[in-house]
């Protein structure tokens, strides 16, 4: 019996990940040797990551590469990957970091839920069984608190809307205007999850272990927090006003005023 996950693409964006790339692609290929292909989206890495990606692709037909002209950001890399995957006919498209923070050995947890009917599966740190490894307490507190605020502001009912380990059904991605995604820091992850909530999608969170990178430096700086939370606050206020408007209109119709 065929399953959606039999045709899965894992997108791995890269910028200066030459040391990590062979490790993460090797782990994906070992964990899922049959049903998963890999798309490396490289932003013209000065360290030669793109050239190495081409070498890996030449040796393995399950690995593909997109080269972008410059450092266009994580959102742009994923959008390019989404479009490529949709054009090639993949049924499930996944996000995964290149630095090993997302364990390929746990990918089956996401894909199993897709096969059971989910439209979007999020590998979550803040559900029962989820955890982070090698994070300082203040980073965990910032991330956990930020996610609590985001869920409360939007009324989304999700614990980890900033998480970047995800699996989407193609039918859900096809509903989104990818050009409209917010590019403010990592807020596009929240944007995609929020669009899925508004679309009435079947969204599920599965516990994963998020491990801080060992090789290389994080591309994330602290400035995204303020920008992201301000953007979410605007979305939340707009959503509440829309709800209030609908309630007011309903009451007027009911009572004839």
From TrEMBL:
It catalyses: a di-trans,poly-cis-dolichyl phosphate + GDP-alpha-D-mannose = a di-trans,poly-cis-dolichyl beta-D-mannosyl phosphate + GDP. It holds the Pfam family Glycos_transf_2. Residues 10-175 form the Glycosyltransferase 2-like domain. GO terms for molecular function: dolichyl-phosphate beta-D-mannosyltransferase activity. It is an enzyme of class 2 (transferase). The keyword Lipoprotein does not apply. One of its GO terms (cellular component) is membrane. The keyword rRNA processing does not apply. InterPro entries: DPM1-like, Glyco_trans_2-like, Nucleotide-diphossugar_trans. Belongs to the glycosyltransferase 2 family. This is dolichyl-phosphate beta-D-mannosyltransferase. It comes from Corynebacterium provencense.
């Amino acid at each position: 019996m065929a399953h959606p996950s039999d045709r899965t693409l894992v997108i791995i964006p890269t910028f200066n990940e030459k040391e990590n790339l062979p490790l993460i692609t090797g782990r994906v290929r070992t964990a899922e040797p049959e049903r998963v292909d890999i798309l490396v989206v490289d932003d013209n890495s000065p360290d030669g990551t793109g050239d190495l990606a081409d070498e890996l692709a030449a040796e393995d037909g399950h690995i593909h590469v997109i080269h972008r002209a410059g450092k266009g950001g994580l959102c742009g890399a994923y959008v390019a990957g989404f479009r490529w995957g949709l054009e090639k006919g993949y049924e499930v498209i996944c996000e995964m970091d290149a630095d090993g923070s997302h364990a390929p050995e746990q990918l089956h947890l996401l894909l199993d839920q897709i096969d059971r009917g989910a439209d979007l599966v999020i590998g979550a740190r803040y559900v029962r069984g989820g955890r982070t490894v090698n994070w300082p307490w203040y980073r965990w507190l910032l991330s956990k608190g930020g996610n609590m605020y985001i869920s409360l502001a939007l009324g989304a009912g999700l614990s980890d809307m900033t998480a970047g380990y995800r699996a989407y059904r193609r039918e859900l991605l096809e509903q989104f205007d990818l050009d409209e995604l917010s590019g403010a820091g990592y807020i596009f992850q929240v944007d995609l999850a929020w669009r899925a909530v508004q679309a009435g999608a079947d969204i599920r969170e599965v516990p994963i272990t998020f491990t801080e990178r060992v090789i290389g430096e994080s591309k994330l700086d602290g400035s995204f927090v303020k920008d992201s939370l301000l953007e979410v606050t605007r979305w939340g206020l707009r959503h509440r006003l829309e709800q209030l408007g609908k309630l007011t209109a309903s009451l007027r119709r009911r009572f004839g005023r």
